[in-house]
Write a structure and sequence with these properties.
With 312 residues, this protein is an alpha/beta fold. The chain folds into two domains: 2-250, Spore Coat Polysaccharide Biosynthesis Protein SpsA, Chain A (Alpha-Beta Complex); 252-311. The chain is built from ten helices and seven strands.
Length: 312
């Protein structure tokens, strides 16, 4: 705990980067639930680093019972309360409020547990302010501190990013990073449905499908302060499920083509094997191959329909 606090406090000693667009409204969205041990330092760090920017710290509190919301208010943050439940629901609540009520042009996501350095926020927003990117993701693996992420979580994160690359075409190394910035107008082009941890993957997939310019920048990642709310197996399974749904929505030809390829291979294998009855030997292989062909065709039709909708 002491080493984390000392290193985090060193952030406050660094000079803030001079912004090129000091008038652009930036809102840092931070979901909280019983983070009294860390939230004060996080809010203070953001306000120090972003002192030269037109920036507001927005806390979306899930009705904490440890005084998290009061600490955030005392540090100068705007605090609103979450009606629903879940990490994704809190972020979406914050995005909507920041855009409608605070007139945000750039939104920044940050956690309240000291895992992310506020000092990286200027590097995240710089490409957006220069109109060089629509979304910028912080790559935690570039500055991962020892003990910041258990081996199971690290392995799971890398596997999810690999699946996202193969299934969704995402060329992002750290798809599960919770520190990122994006243009608020990008919300109009993203269909966000997830209410939990899968929102991080959904945002990237929807932004990529909307032809948004996505970049990554290296950031540090520290051991969290306080009790973790992440459940690696449960949340990992939900993220995989969301990835499959997104694959169906965004890349239908790959989705149905993959299933069709499996059926086609099974049909060819059955055709080469001797089955107990001659009828089964004749019928089943062609059923599989016919099904594979239909799935490929269905996927292709969906791609054409999706392309026509985009043109409109």
């Amino acid at each position: 705990m002491l080493s984390v606090t000392i290193e985090f406090n060193s952030i406050l000693e660094e000079e803030a980067i001079d912004p090129q667009h000091a008038t652009t409204k930036i809102v840092v969205v931070i979901p909280t639930l019983n983070e009294c041990k860390a939230v004060g330092k996080v809010v203070g760090g953001v306000k120090h680093v972003m002192a030269d920017y037109n920036c507001t710290v927005l806390i979306i509190d899930g009705h904490s019972t440890d005084g998290t919301d009061q600490i955030a208010k005392e540090k100068g943050a705007t605090v609103i309360y979450q009606r629903g439940k879940g990490y994704g629901d809190a972020l979406k609540t914050g995005f909507l409020y920041a855009r409608k009520q605070l007139k945000a042009k750039v939104l920044v996501m940050l956690d309240a547990d000291l895992t992310y350095h506020p000092k990286h926020i200027p590097a995240l927003v710089a490409p957006i302010l220069k109109d060089e990117a629509d979304m910028v993701v912080g790559d935690r693996f570039a500055g991962m501190q020892k003990g910041a992420m258990p081996f199971v979580n690290r392995f799971g994160n890398k596997m999810l990013s690999l699946v996202a690359k193969l299934a969704l075409g995402l060329n992002v190394y750290d798809t599960q990073s919770g520190m990122r910035a994006f243009k608020s107008t990008l919300l109009d082009r993203m269909k966000l449905e997830a209410v939990g941890m899968p929102l991080a993957m959904e945002m990237l997939a929807e932004a990529h499908d909307a032809d948004a310019r996505i970049r990554e920048v290296p950031i540090s990642y520290l051991p969290r302060v306080g009790e973790t709310k992440l459940h690696p197996i449960k949340d990992g399974g939900r993220i995989l499920g969301t990835t499959v749904r997104l694959m169906f929505d965004i890349r239908p030809l790959l989705f149905f083509g993959s299933i069709g390829a499996v059926l086609g291979i099974m049909g060819l294998l059955l055709h080469s094997l001797t089955l107990p009855t001659e009828l089964a030997h004749l019928v089943f292989p062609y059923l599989f191959i016919s099904g594979a062909t239909l799935l490929f065709g269905f996927g292709f039709i969906l791609v054409v329909i999706k392309s026509l909708r985009k043109r409109k």
